[in-house]
C-alpha cells in the first residue's frame, strides 16, 4: 500500500467505523455509506477522493477492512466499529477450538482481573492464527498472544461472529477461557 492509499484507508476507517458525523456522513445500521455522499462529505472536509481511488483502497487493503455493495454504490467497514449508528447483524458462527488475541504485556494485569473487554469497540477482536494475533498486539507495545478456548466458550452459550475478512468477534472473553 502506498502513502496515499494508507492515508485514505485510515480516513475511511475513521469515518466508517468511528466518527461518520465528523464529516456529516450517516451510516445505516449495517454500516453502509453511499459512496457519492461520502465523496461529497469528504471534499467539504478537504479530503479529495474519487470512486477509482476508493475502489483501489478497498481492493488493496491488507486486512480487507472494507466491502463494496453489490453494484458498487455503497461502502462499509466489515468490522472494528465503535459508532453507535452501526449494529451489523453478523451471523452466529461455531468457532474453532482455539482463537487468539494479540495484546500488549502492559494490559495483562487488567486482563487477568476483568477478562477481555471490548473497550471502545463493539466487540473483542480475535484471530484464527497466532501470527495475525501477534501483529495485532504489536500495535499496542510489547506483544503477547493469548490463547482463547473458543469452542468451550461457545458450548457454554457465548456467541461468536466472524466478519467478512475473517476476524472473529465476541462480546467479551471471561478470564476462565483465557490461557495466559
Ligand atoms: C485490550 C486492527 C486492559 C486489548 C486489528 C487491546 C484488529 C484490555 C486493547 C482490530 C482489556 C484494545 C482490533 C482489559 C482488552 N484490560 N486492556 N480487561 N481487554 N484489552 O485497538 O484487538 O488495522 O480496540 O487486548 O487488526 O487491538 O484497525 O483492539 O490491546 O482486528 O483494521 O485493549 O484493529 O485492525 O485495542 O484491534 P483495540 P485490538 P485495523
From TrEMBL:
Pfam families, sorted: PTS_2-RNA
GO molecular function: NAD+ poly-ADP-ribosyltransferase activity; tRNA 2'-phosphotransferase activity
EC number assigned by the record: 2.7.1.-
One GO process term, biological-process aspect: tRNA splicing, via endonucleolytic cleavage and ligation
Secreted found in the keyword field: no
Record keywords, A-Z: NAD, Transferase
Stated role: Removes the 2'-phosphate from RNA via an intermediate in which the phosphate is ADP-ribosylated by NAD followed by a presumed transesterification to release the RNA and generate ADP-ribose 1''-2''-cyclic phosphate (APPR>P). May function as an ADP-ribosylase.
Similarity field: Belongs to the KptA/TPT1 family.
PANTHER family: PUTATIVE PHOSPHOTRANSFERASE, TRNA 2'-PHOSPHOTRANSFERASE 1
HAMAP family noted in UniProt: KptA
Protein name as annotated: Probable RNA 2'-phosphotransferase
Name of encoding gene: kptA
